[in-house]
Amino acid sequence: MNKLPKSVEVRDDTMREGLQIESKDISVDEKLRLLDALGETDIKVISIGSFVSPKWTPQMACIDEIAERFEPKPGVTYTAAVFNQQGFERADKYYPKINVRTREYMTHVEVGGTFAMRNYNRTAEQMLQSVDGTVERAKQAGVESGGIVIGNPFGSNFEGDVPLDQSLAVFAQVIDRWHAQGLKVASCRILDDMGACMPDQLTEMLSAIRSRWPEITDFGLHLHNQRGVTNICYYEALKFGVTRFDTSLGGLGGCPYCGNGRSAGHVPTEDFVYMCEEMGVDTGLDLDKLIEATAIAEEVVGHPLWGHVSKAGPRPRGKTLYPKDMPFVETLEEASHFRKGPSVYAHQVKPWREDSALMKSLD
């Protein structure tokens, strides 16, 4: 399938997975500043962070203060990550300002046992056994279908490559549990914390799932980018018809459990939005404001991020074309003229004299 979707849903994970790998000393005021900038980008759903134990995630120790103080933007639904009943109750105190009540019934399993233990403190077998409880709750809620999240089906930094047949076997065990309760599976989310996914592997897996279980029509991806190929994977997924993609401003993010830390970031939201919009795929997001939000994110975390469009700007056209007599542009600060104006390169020299033929031709 090579026909691109008309639109996609971009789920930016800056405030949650992005900030939870950064310094715990970032102030609440700075986090609120970033959350406010993100809310200006026309994004429809924003997670403000995670209601988790500060013992394990000290970066989220201030989540209650953020929930109390932030000013919601019109048209934005704010939510948060919760992983148990205690977290749900903490977040639900702020309803309807924060909505954790609307939920999808998704069953999450990991293909590899090591990461399951490191990240979730459960074996892969225990995660598989917990599927039955989720399916039962879905049935009691009267839903007609649910979804499957499959974690790290392409390989593991601790266990090596994973053959497609092995991942599909795990997938089959989960979907059989849904079918046993008379429920269909309509959604599939693929997680890759290891940065193992390659474009050909992704399309092979998506094709195999769709061929074997045609009831699954809604696909989403949460692929980490530590080896720099994830935006290529996202492009292949677009051609396949995938419409849900997780990203973060500047590629902010990481994973403390996979062995790659902050290098396991995401596809930069602004880069993915630029790619989609250039190809005629509507994201509904304001690219210029995403770039501004990324600049704020760099200030908040105190170091450069990994995006490209935020550094060079979108491709210039019409009124945004560069001046033909522009002087040298060398540094990243000078390259920011697309958003800051010519003052950032005013000190630079021009590679020609004012009376040169080139300068005369520009008059």
Write up this protein.
The strands form 3 sheets. The chain has a 6-stranded parallel sheet with strand order 1-10-9-8-5-4. Strands 2-3 form a two-stranded parallel ribbon. Strands 6-7 form a two-stranded antiparallel ribbon. It is α/β, with parallel strands linked by helices. The protein contains 16 helices and 10 strands. The mean pLDDT is 95. The protein has 2 domains: 304 residues, TIM Barrel (Alpha-Beta Barrel); 44 residues, no CATH class. The longest helix has 17 residues.
What's the quick description here?
The protein is an alpha/beta fold and 363 residues long.
Shape: globular
Identify the CATH architecture of the largest domain.
Alpha-Beta Barrel
User: How much helix is in the residues?
Assistant: 25-40%
The arrangement of helices and strands along the chain is: EHHEHEHEHHHEEEHEHEHEHHHHHH
**CATH class assignment of the largest domain:** Alpha Beta
Stretches where pLDDT falls below 50 for ≥5 residues?
none
Seen as an oligomer or otherwise, the chain set is: single chain
- The CATH superfamily of the largest domain is known as Aldolase class I
* Biggest sheet character: 6 strands, parallel
The strands making up the biggest β-sheet line up spatially as 1-10-9-8-5-4
Number of helices: 16
Mean pLDDT level: 95
Number of domains: 2
Q: What would the CATH topology of the largest domain be? A: TIM Barrel
Rounded to the nearest angstrom, the distance between the terminal CA atoms is: 50 Å
The share of residues in extended strands comes to 5-15%
Instruction: Give the total of beta strands.
Output: 10
Question: Structural class of the secondary structure composition?
Answer: alpha/beta
Radius of gyration: 23 Å
